Amino acid sequence: MLSYRHSFHAGNHADVLKHTVQSLIIESLKEKDKPFLYLDTHAGAGRYQLGSEHAERTGEYLEG
């Protein structure tokens, strides 16, 4: 089984793209009069330090 720890990948180009698209979709939904529910089923720790040992090990955030 593969293991994935987001602390090694936070802030990389895919992470930035995901959050940009997510923000645009939510802003679009907010323009409508109809209420909506946003439920994040894959939430991680919620905050990642880009200067941490994990992030520094891969350096992926430098391209994000």
TrEMBL record:
InterPro entries per UniProt = RlmJ, SAM-dependent_MTases_sf
Q: Which BP terms in the Gene Ontology apply to this protein?
A: rRNA base methylation
Keyword Transferase assigned to the entry: answer is yes
Q: Would the keyword Methyltransferase be found if you checked this record's keyword annotation?
A: yes
Provide the protein name. Answer: 23S rRNA (Adenine(2030)-N(6))-methyltransferase RlmJ
Q: Name one GO cellular component term.
A: cytosol
Tell me which UniProt keywords the record has, alphabetically. Answer: Methyltransferase, Transferase
Organism the protein comes from: Escherichia coli
Q: Which GO terms describe its molecular function?
A: 23S rRNA (adenine(2030)-N(6))-methyltransferase activity
